[in-house]
Amino acid sequence: MTRDQIQKKVRELGARISTDYDGEEIVLICNLKGAFIFLADLCRYVTAPISMDFIAITSYKGTESSGDVRIIKDLKMDVSGKNLLIVEDIIDTGLTVDYLINYLKLHNPRSIKVCTLLDKRCMRKIDVAIDYMGFEVGDKFLIGYGLDYNERYREMDSIAELIVERDKGDKQ
Ligand code: IMP
Ligand code: MG
Fold this sequence. Notes:
Helix content: 10-25%
Number of strands: 8
Order of helices and strands: HEHEEEHEEEE
Bound molecules: inosinic acid, magnesium ion
Shape: globular
Distance between the termini: 33 Å
Largest sheet: 6 strands, mixed
Oligomer: single chain
Number of domains: 1
């Protein structure tokens, strides 16, 4: 996905969110680190009053989801009674966002919705209702626009597939 395709999509998502919430206040919950660039662009296309908070949940090591989900940085705001919109870079197995939804429910928010730029639907292990989605993608490992491979490539303004070269000595 090129920079222009991404920006066009983010603008569309921002417009839809603005219409749907109709001036109601939203708290954007950014799941670090992958979603930080998407959040930075998205928040500038949302016209409803917003505040933001950050949480860090991890389930990922290398290119494979470990299925082991943990909170490594908690929310700072009191989100009870608020309209929460989870902002994700990519939903893969769904384990991370499912965990996050259940965690946020414990804080008694008014509502919880999910916005993800990318949806790797074919890899889902747990069913998750997604309210706003940018692009559906296949079983590929993607980098750029916040998405990393071992912490690299987040700064790219486009999204690309990472092709891991096989070990040159491996002839089998
Ligand atoms: P899930 O719990 O399997 O849905 O994993 C979601 C998280 O895995 C995302 O927030 C990303 O951080 C990471 N992830 C999943 N697929 C990719 C990918 O293709 N590239 C980079 N990170 C990914
Ligand atoms: Mg992530």
